[in-house]
Write a structure and sequence with these properties.
single chain, about 240 residues, alpha+beta, four-stranded antiparallel β-sheet, 5 helices
Length: about 240
């Protein structure tokens, strides 16, 4: 998926060099990253080092650390000034068996209201389940260490239907036509030129062609064709 103002200039070359079946050019390649920032859920994370053996871990202190992390992170969502459809708080522990280097992240399943204190037995059971799922075995009797507490708050944004950015009923091949010009593809060839945003859903533009829009330029190499899908994306693939 090429993006950015110049990414789609090279999509055809990548298709040939890598042997890709097709490429998807977003409706607005030059602002795809910015669009993602606008519609993505907002998330803040905090990691606190505990470095304690599980058999000495104070459940009440762990609960207090979790509450303190949430108290630090939640105001960050408040200050963003964004309307959320909901919020979620998640906590997890980085854990391993004593003497190991790598850790397993163990999600802590709390009550629906986020309250309650987790006992050592519950934490151990969650660790053994996560460790077994990852490595296919457990190490009963080996002491367990708790390295870090990971806390996350997520503000859920409203879902956006990307089909809203698709071309409207006024779009047509005739409205999109911008004549032709010579383009170098190892030799000069005459390429058609189109206003990409004016192409209707279902339009197929054979290469060589150049599609122009304010935030990007798209090149359809000879032997390829561009097809507009129902979201307004352009699918580049070999001509049949």
């Amino acid at each position: 998926m090429p993006f950015g103002g110049g990414g789609a200039l090279h999509a055809g070359a990548l298709i040939r060099e890598v042997g890709l079946a097709r490429a998807l050019v977003p409706r607005f390649p030059g602002v795809t990253s910015a669009l993602g920032c606008v519609i993505a859920d907002m998330r803040h994370d905090r990691v606190q080092t505990l470095n304690a053996m599980l058999n000495t871990l104070d459940p009440a202190a762990l609960r207090a650390a979790m509450d303190a992390a949430e108290a630090l992170l939640s105001p960050l969502l408040d200050r963003a000034g964004v309307a959320f459809t909901g919020r979620e708080v998640e906590h997890a522990l980085d854990m391993n068996y004593a003497g190991q280097t790598h850790t397993v992240t163990v999600r802590l399943n709390l009550a629906t209201d986020g309250g309650g204190t987790l006992g050592r037995e519950a934490v151990l059971a969650a660790f053994e389940a996560a460790y077994g799922a990852r490595f296919g075995r457990r190490m009963p009797g080996v002491p367990v260490r708790v390295l870090n507490l990971r806390s996350t708050v997520v503000g859920r944004r409203p879902r956006i239907d990307l089909a809203a950015m698709a071309p409207g009923p006024q779009a047509s091949l005739a409205a999109a036509a911008r004549g032709s010009r010579r383009v170098w593809f190892g030799g000069w060839v005459e390429a058609t030129v189109h206003d990409r945003l004016a192409l209707p859903v279902g339009a197929v533009i054979p290469g060589p062609a150049v599609l122009e829009q304010p935030d990007a330029t798209i090149v359809i190499d000879p032997g390829l064709a561009g097809r507009v899908d129902r979201f307004g994306n352009l699918i580049l693939e070999a001509q049949e």
